[in-house]
Amino acid sequence: MTTHDHDWLVVGTGFGGSVSALRLAQKGYRVGMLECGRRFRDEDFANTTWEAAKYYWFPKFGMKGVFRTTLFKDIFVVSGSGVGGGSLGYANTLYRARPGFYRDPQIAGLADWERELAPHYDEAERMLGVVTYDEDAGRPPAQGVRGVHRPRRDVREDARRRLPR
Ligand SMILES: Cc1cc2nc3c(=O)[nH]c(=O)nc-3n(C[C@H](O)[C@H](O)[C@H](O)COP(=O)(O)OP(=O)(O)OC[C@H]3O[C@@H](n4cnc5c(N)ncnc54)[C@H](O)[C@@H]3O)c2cc1C
């Protein structure tokens, strides 16, 4: 019988891939992750966008930064690259969908999405360490602006303990 090193291979280590890999590993599967971008230490990030080789992802030209741009016929996509994917360079704002999203006729009749999604938002916010942005004290709070300083230490340490080396 063929043996394998992994039960699951997850392609991409961004927000989606990392959560998938974590949950599979927590269930006891042997999980491998494939990532085409590089691993970044704090000192590897570009300080300004002028440091193009560190900021943009154009590997053909030796540029292996976090910011990938992809041009299709009708659309231009900006996304992340590197271990961590979009989390390496995203804007740290974390919103819940507004009421209009749940009323969209394409999904509204299928379930009570606000109730269905609420526990998943709670868990994502817990894991990402979401806090309400309060730097503009004195001004009326922007509607639903939520952000993150850093993943909470206990969550990071818990993930580190559980993941296979
Ligand atoms: C500049 C910017 C700011 C943003 N700000 C916010 C924000 O404030 N709040 C918010 O909620 N969202 C924000 N987003 C959006 C958010 O980052 C994305 O929705 C999220 O990263 C998507 O997660 P993902 O797992 O689908 O993909 P990604 O996080 O992009 O991960 C995909 C990973 O797969 C890798 N990959 C791709 N192809 C291959 C391959 N063939 N082989 C191996 N690896 C591969 C990529 O290198 C990347 O690391 C922002 C995005 C950008 C670009």
UniProtKB/TrEMBL annotation:
InterPro entries named among the record's database cross-references: Cholesterol_Oxidase (IPR052542), FAD/NAD-bd_sf (IPR036188)
UniProt biased composition (Basic and acidic residues): 154-165
Native source organism of the sequence: Paraconexibacter antarcticus
UniProt similarity note: Belongs to the GMC oxidoreductase family.
Record region (Disordered): 135-165
Cofactor(s) the protein requires to work: FAD
Keywords (A to Z) from UniProt: FAD, Flavoprotein, Oxidoreductase
UniProt protein name: Cholesterol oxidase
Secretion signal span: none
